[in-house]
Design brief:
heterodimer; A: 142 residues; alpha+beta; three-stranded antiparallel sheet; 5 helices; 3 strands; 19% strand; globular; B: 396 residues; alpha/beta; 12 strands; 13% strand; binds pyridoxal-5'-phosphate
């Protein structure tokens, strides 16, 4: 299956940061089982910095690889920087994804945002709600 | 260990088939349409292959065998031809099932766009069409019933002889896509009252790109491909002589060894069913009673099929799945959905299709690897977490 780049295969076969954080400061979950992808992202925050990040993912090879890469990209970053993570950055870090798998990188970006939103909610930090809209998958919300 | 467990997708070319075809690539490469004696060898080989294929399918005459480029072409020609014939008599209704191969379904879709009416029968939870449903769907203007012999994804076998008898009684042409059955199950077009039947060489150890359409002599056949007068004018194009010879040799070998091979394959298949069923929240898809010898299709809740396949690949196992991610569309396979499986469950499907070349050691390897991989992926899955905590109901 030469569908994926070596980077994707590496992150699929040796995913980084798999698991749960029991005392997470923020948890975000996106996707749904009907579509075949669900990502749950846990973050631990100290002094505005994401000190730890873990994920659980149900989905195809690229869903697992994009989750893994996203955790790598935001770990050690400030919460504000994590919010700037774009799906394109995840795709580039993985040396590309097939066109029909780009939605997995969008999910990864949204999982990070959902976790940060949860962190803001739990800590009474104000934010602009418009920036945290999750795009519902048209197919699933039919 | 490397285990090829995707024989429903394609098979290796057998030594018998390869030995049979090689001389027609190197020594007797003449065009069967040529006049000189040198080309006679090729002509004779095609004639002999036609007789062999006819005998293997129980056809009354070799003249009822038309060689094609494969199963898809045979399906297309059978359906388009029957539709054209029907239209001449003002009959524009066709009956089929929801879980046919796309070679059939997409051809029917095309006919619908051209103004035909199509009834797609339910295959129920067990993946078997009911004779009563076929009978109830037949109308005055029905010009074809096309129902597959055995399903390619779940391996269920349809009541072909019964449907054949019904169609004969009603005077309606009956086609069956026997691509997954040929060489693996007994076929007799006479006894089973089959009017048209498609086969494909690469599913029984012949090369890819060669197949055949059986068409009963009293059923007019229209061309799909126009050109020269090959195949008695019904299928133009210089014959794929080597492929045709290989297909006949492979089919004969498969039919000759069928009893012994199926015993061996059934033992391997049943071991897979028994061992993999021990995985909690798993489900076997399709009736076990009406089943081809080699195909195993199961769903494992809480995981997704593509990641399962990639993990199996990393462990040397070639298999397939009906998940959306592997079908390249947003929906899981139409076959699994036709059984009434929810999307969530259908995403976690695995098809293992074994052949006579597989060994029990290979089956043991699969039985060892699959539970480990399922466990690993479930542990990574938030869905499994919720299922285990009772926050989400188990569906299987
Ligand atoms: C049931 C069925 N019909 C038709 C086909 C198409 O055959 P071919 O690949 O020879 O065109 C296949 C195989 O893919 C099949 O499994």
């Amino acid at each position: 299956m030469a569908l994926y780049s070596d980077k994707v295969m590496d992150h699929f076969q040796n995913p980084r940061n798999v698991g749960k954080i029991d005392d997470a400061d923020g948890i975000g979950e996106v996707g749904n089982a009907k579509c075949g992808d669900i990502m749950r992202m846990y973050i631990k925050v100290k002094d505005g910095i994401i000190t730890d990040c873990k994920f659980n993912t149900f989905g195809c090879g690229s869903a697992i690889a994009t989750s893994s890469m996203a955790t790598e990209l935001i770990k050690g970053k400030s919460v504000e920087d994590a919010l700037k993570l774009s799906n394109q950055a995840v795709v580039e870090a993985l040396d590309g994804l097939p066109a029909h798998k780009i939605h997995c990188s969008v999910l990864a970006e949204e999982a990070v945002r959902a976790a940060v939103k949860d962190y803001y909610d739990k800590n009474g930090i104000a934010y602009n709600a418009e920036e945290f809209q999750i795009h519902d998958c048209e197919h699933c919300s039919e | 260990m490397f285990v090829y467990a995707d024989n429903a997708a394609t098979t290796s070319v057998s030594k018998t088939a390869l030995d049979a075809m090689l001389p027609y690539l190197t020594e007797y490469y003449g065009n069967p349409s040529s006049l000189y004696a040198f080309a006679q060898k090729a002509t004779e080989a095609v004639t002999e292959a036609r007789a062999t294929v006819a005998a293997c399918l129980g056809a009354a005459s070799p003249r009822e065998i038309y060689f094609t480029s494969g199963g898809s072409e045979a399906d297309n020609q059978a359906i388009m031809s029957a539709a054209r014939l029907g239209a001449r008599k003002g009959k524009k209704h066709l009956i089929s099932t929801k879980f046919e191969h796309h070679a059939v379904l997409h051809t029917l879709k095309r006919l619908e766009k051209e103004g035909y009416e199509v009834t797609l029968l339910d295959v129920h939870e067990d993946g078997v069409v009911r004779l009563e449903d076929v009978a109830a769907a037949i109308r005055e203007d029905t010009c074809l019933v096309t129902i597959m012999f055995a399903n390619n994804e779940i391996g269920t076998v349809q009541p072909i002889a019964e449907i054949g008898a019904l169609c004969r009684e009603k005077g309606i042409p009956f086609h069956t896509d026997a691509v997954q059955a040929a060489g693996h199950m007994p076929i007799d077009v006479e006894k089973m009252n089959i009017d048209m039947l498609s086969i494909s060489g690469h599913k029984f150890h012949a090369p890819k790109g060669v197949g055949a359409l059986y068409c009963r002599k009293n059923i007019p056949l229209f061309n799909l491909i126009e050109g020269g007068g090959q195949e008695r004018g019904k299928r133009a194009g210089t014959e794929n002589v080597a492929g045709i010879v290989a297909m006949a040799a492979a089919l004969k070998e498969s039919v000759d060894n069928m009893e012994e091979d199926s015993k061996k394959m059934i033992a391997m298949r049943d071991k897979l069913f028994a061992e993999l069923s021990k995985i909690p929240h798993s489900k076997i898809n399709g009736s076990l009673e009406h089943h081809v010898p080699g195909t195993v299709n199961m769903c494992f809740e809480g995981i997704e099929g593509e990641s399962l396949l990639l993990m199996l690949d990393a462990n040397g196992i070639c298999a397939s799945s009906g998940s959306a991610c592997t079908s390249g569309s947003l929906d899981p396979s139409h076959v699994l959905l036709s059984l009434g499986l929810p999307h969530e469950v259908a995403h976690g499907s695995l098809r293992l299709s074994i052949g006579e070349y597989n060994t029990m050691e290979e089956i043991d390897h699969i039985c060892q690897v699959v539970p480990q991989v399922v466990d690993y992926l479930r542990n990574m899955s938030p869905v499994w977490d919720e299922l285990e905590k009772g926050q989400r109901p188990h569906l299987i």
